[in-house]
Write a structure and sequence with these properties.
The chain is of the alpha+beta class and about 90 residues long. The protein has one domain. It has 3 helices and 4 strands, in the order αβββααβ. The strands form 2 sheets. Strands 1-4 form a two-stranded antiparallel sheet. The two termini are about 20 Å apart.
Length: about 90
């Protein structure tokens, strides 16, 4: 169990469908300190998944949600994360 915890601390999530990754708790933003959102100025719940931020039809970030819930620095960082057109399960890298 301790080994698994250590491995998780050294990894981040690669976003595919966003269903496995929590916006506020998990490590998923490649260019952010500790790969996490450091400030929470949002109406999104603390257990919300990254999938809530993805338009499933266009496979793009929902700019209205990013605008309303993230500071400009994090909006820019999130917008730089590519969303694959063919979703599959998120993966630790």
């Amino acid at each position: 169990m301790q080994a698994l915890t250590l491995v998780r601390k050294g990894t981040r999530w690669r976003i595919w469908d966003g269903e496995s990754v929590r916006i506020w708790w998990d490590r998923w933003i490649p260019t952010a300190a500790d790969y996490r959102v450091q400030t929470q100025v949002s109406r999104l719940g603390i257990t919300e998944k990254v999938s809530k931020l993805i338009d499933q039809d266009t496979r793009s970030w929902k700019s209205n949600l990013l605008q309303a819930n993230f500071q400009p620095t994090y909006r820019d960082r999130i917008n730089q994360i590519p969303i694959p057109f063919h979703p599959r399960a998120d993966m630790r890298v």
